[in-house]
Write a structure and sequence with these properties.
Helices cover 41% and strands 17% of the residues. With 344 residues, the protein is α/β, with parallel strands linked by helices. 38% of the residues are buried.
């Protein structure tokens, strides 16, 4: 009998990467169940109900729900944990939220450590991350796997055939940067570039982020702060000529690939990023454009080149979209994910 796959997610954990694979499995007609739980008691109730159903099932704890892996162990279940990345990377490496006397640092490490060790198997995003996590948390390599982050295509439908054809050269390139204002994002570099290009009518920038301490008003910059709807995000991506990646040489980029990279690839949009970390390989392969990390002059120089060579810009977007379809589409990643969890 085929096993039913049960995904268990902490309530209000809305930004879990695992939703992508769940939606992909549904499209493959795989029997799946998505359950939201509040805490230990709620999880215990779920396990009792699953046991009484007399159905064989595989339990997967979603990314950003690491605590449920620990709770599950004490309830007599060892689960598969789709960690994606350690909580450490988001709380400590990126946001530097150390807490009073380093309490947050210690707490975050312990949650990661025990959630990984008490799980039956753990899935991360990249091979580089697997190597680092294995050393940092003393986990045997045979206990961990990786499946790329990808993009949840259920968020909005995109007609990939729309607009296909010979592009027309544009006088103004519409450039989109979207993402949280973490250290590695390099929003300060973008704002510096906007100031230097304020009288250059060849470029129009849109910045979408969660917060910005020192906002600027500039005629070449559209600023959107806070949560925006998927419909608006789709409009912004569809009309953009170039999508920007992370812009600094932050160490997190050596182990992780930003979500917006997959988002741009899904839309076949040209992508410009700091030539650093894991993105360096994509630059070398000609799938994305790169500039020297943290160097505003290198960034502007690349923009000037891309404005002059717009057919190359368009062709690179098409090439990136083809790469996505073959390597990182929801279908491809879901099959990889399914193969791992059903053979652990």
């Amino acid at each position: 009998m085929n096993k039913q796959i049960v995904f268990i997610n902490l309530k209000n954990n809305n930004y879990t990467r695992t939703r992508n694979y769940y939606n992909g499995l549904l499209k493959l007609n795989v029997a799946c169940l998505w359950l939201e739980v509040v805490g230990y008691k709620d999880l215990a109730k779920v396990f009792r109900e699953l046991k009484s159903s007399n159905t064989k099932y595989t339990i997967v704890v979603t990314s950003r729900s690491q605590l449920l892996s620990i709770y599950s162990f004490f309830l007599g279940r060892r689960v598969i944990l789709d960690a994606g990345l350690p909580l450490w990377d988001g709380v400590i490496t990126s946001r530097r939220s150390l807490g009073f006397l380093g309490f947050s640092l210690i707490k975050t490490y312990l949650i990661d450590y025990f959630s990984f060790h008490l799980a039956k198997h753990v899935i991360f995003e990249t091979v580089a991350q697997n190597s680092r996590v294995s050393r940092m948390f003393a986990i045997k390599r045979k206990k961990i796997s990786c499946v790329s982050l990808g993009f949840d295509e259920n968020r909005f439908y995109h007609d990939k055939l729309a607009g296909v054809g010979r592009p027309m050269k544009k006088s103004v390139l519409k450039i989109l940067f979207r993402g949280g204002n973490q250290v590695e994002s390099g929003i300060s570099l973008l704002l510096d570039a906007c100031r230097k290009l304020v009288d250059d009518e060849r470029f129009s920038f849109t910045l979408v982020t969660n917060n910005l301490e020192h906002a600027i008003e500039s005629k070449n910059l559209e600023l959107l702060i806070g949560h925006i709807s998927d419909d608006l995000m789709k409009q912004l991506l569809s009309r953009s000529d170039l999508v920007l990646g992370q812009m600094l040489d932050h160490k997190r980029l050596s182990i992780a690939i930003p979500h917006k990279f997959y988002e741009a690839a899904y839309f076949s949009k040209p992508y410009l990023t700091a030539d650093y970390g894991l993105m360096e390989d994509f630059v070398d392969k000609g799938l994305v454009f790169g500039f020297k990390a943290g160097d505003v002059h290198s960034f502007i120089e690349q923009l000037n080149t891309l404005h002059e060579k717009q057919f190359d810009l368009f062709a690179c977007g098409v090439k990136l979209g083809d790469w996505y379809n073959q390597n990182s589409s929801q279908h491809v990643l879901t099959k990889n994910f399914q193969n791992i969890i059903l053979n652990v």
